[in-house]
Amino acid sequence: MNEKFFDLKKEKQDRMINASLKVFAINGYKHASTDDIVSEASISKGLLFHYFGSKLGLYSFLYDYSVRFMKLELTTGVPSSVKDYFEIRKLMEFAKMQILKNYPYMQQFLDRCATENVSEALMAIEKQRSVIQDVYAVLKNQADRSLFTDSISFDKLDAMMDYTISGLMNAHFRDDSFHPEMLYEETTSYLQMMKTISYRK
């Protein structure tokens, strides 16, 4: 982590982080432009390079910051005592909603990183690439699978919910009036619907 960067005022930190997350999330590493980032953040290019050295340095910092932030919010937001799969997923989405209020493009950035194919970018984030997926796996594995009907495949249901939640997020981001609360509300309605047909009566 770049300690000098954290000496800046929080508002300026977040402005630079959010501008960078947005440009990398939309364009990917190869096509992300530092000119676009400094324009979005309303800072000089000199300031950006002073703290991060290069586009790769900024990308690496962003990924590390995002992983740490996301991991902390998820692990503190879902108590280990919760065994209802759908409640676990709701709490995970609530934690992500809180993150999106501060960093609207963080989830999109991490999703884009998961499909990154530029070798220097991949090497920069290699050690951290599995962290969030590992956190998801631990949280989901808390679920009591005996609650499900015999006809339900847990792995297929979980994959279906992943696809649904990802699709909802992408759909909401295409709307210029994106609100994390609205995304969370719609996501939980799908989770509740699936719960009513997945559990034993």
Architecture overview:
By secondary structure, this protein is mainly alpha-helical. Helices cover 72% and strands 0% of the residues. It is built from ten helices and no strands. It has helices spanning 10-31, 34-41, 45-52, 55-77, 85-102, 106-114, 119-125, 131-140, 154-173, 180-198. Helix 1 packs parallel to helix 6 (106-114) and helix 5 runs antiparallel to helix 10 (180-198). The N and C termini lie far apart (50 Å). The mean pLDDT is 93.
Q: What's the overall average pLDDT, rounded?
A: 93
Low-confidence stretches: none
Question: How much helical structure, as a percent, in the residues?
Answer: over 70%
Overall strand count = 0
End-to-end separation = 50 Å
Would you list the SSEs in sequence order as H and E?
HHHHHHHHHH
What's the alpha carbon Rg, rounded to whole Å? 18 Å
DSSP strand content = under 5%
Helix/strand-derived category reads: mainly alpha
Q: Main beta sheet: strand number and arrangement?
A: none
Oligomerization category of the chains in this entry: single chain
Shape: elongated
The number of helical segments is: 10
